[in-house]
Amino acid sequence: DGGITQSPKYLFRKEGQNVTLSCEQNLNHDAMYWYRQDPGQGLRLIYYSQIVNDFQKGDIAEGYSVSREKKESFPLTVTSAQKNPTAFYLCASSDNSGANVLTFGAGSRLTVL
Amino acid sequence: GQNIDQPTEMTATEGAIVQINCTYQTSGFNGLFWYQQHAGEAPTFLSYNVLDGLEEKGRFSSFLSRSKGYSYLLLKELQMKDSASYLCAVKDSNYQLIWGAGTKLIIKP
Fold first, then answer.
1. CB B79 within 8 A of CB B73
2. Is the CA virtual torsion B89, B10, B106, B12 positive or negative?
């Protein structure tokens, strides 16, 4: 079955460490997205990519980095520059047609100790 | 600024009907989405409205009034598995999604 796989589901990090969250999709979607979800707030866009080898900053890109070397993969690195990284991170993809409905991965919960 | 408002939490009884409202103020409008999200899981797509009126899909219906900046999600014949958060999102004039904080729906037997 087609879908989006995020890993790891749970991740603990010490302050000052970079961590990379994996996102892989086999839906053949062109566009991929990273969102951050915090309690009591709407989803906030970190980065998005409409096509391979190209990506744009979202609303809260500071302290994060991404790459899009393959259509299937869009990893997110949370760097030590991100001041409040503890959150639930959601990866999504869409086929850029019609309503452009997002398909989400199951999420990765990052906790900074 | 752009804003999406939804009630934080609602409670309903199994078998009943519940209406979850969403009001929006955005720079332009290119469609409104409803997603369902069970705790700790991925949001899943429920409905999409771009024209005024009611869209029905089984037990779920979604309504849109663009002139009022208003939408609602109607859930009928509530089941315990409908306990989840319901997210409203609007696509603005730049085709960027603006998300509400979500409404946590609690279903009681």
1. no
2. negative
Contacting residues of A for B35, CB less than 8 Å apart:
102
The DSSP symbol for A73 reads: B
A99 vs B contacts (CB less than 8 Å): 31, 33, 48, 50
Which residue's entry shows tokens 């009943």? B16
Whole-angstrom distance, CA of residue A104 vs CA of residue B44: 7
* Residue of A36, A40, A24 lying closest to A103 (CA atoms): A24
Q: What are the distances in angstroms from CA A24 to CA A3, A50, A82, B94? A: 8, 15, 23, 27
Residues 6+ apart with CB under 8 A from A32: A23, A25, A48, A49, A68, A74, A91, A92, A93
The tens-digit pLDDT sequence of chain B (109 residues) is 789 999 999 999 999 999 999 999 999 999 999 999 999 899 999 999 999 999 999 999 999 999 999 999 999 999 999 999 999 999 999 889 999 999 999 999 9
The answer to whether the CB atoms of B42 and A45 lie below 8 A apart is no
Strands of the sheet with A4-7, listed across from one edge: A4-7, A19-25, A76-78, A64-66
- Measured between alpha carbons, how far is B42 from A91 in angstroms, rounded to an integer? 9
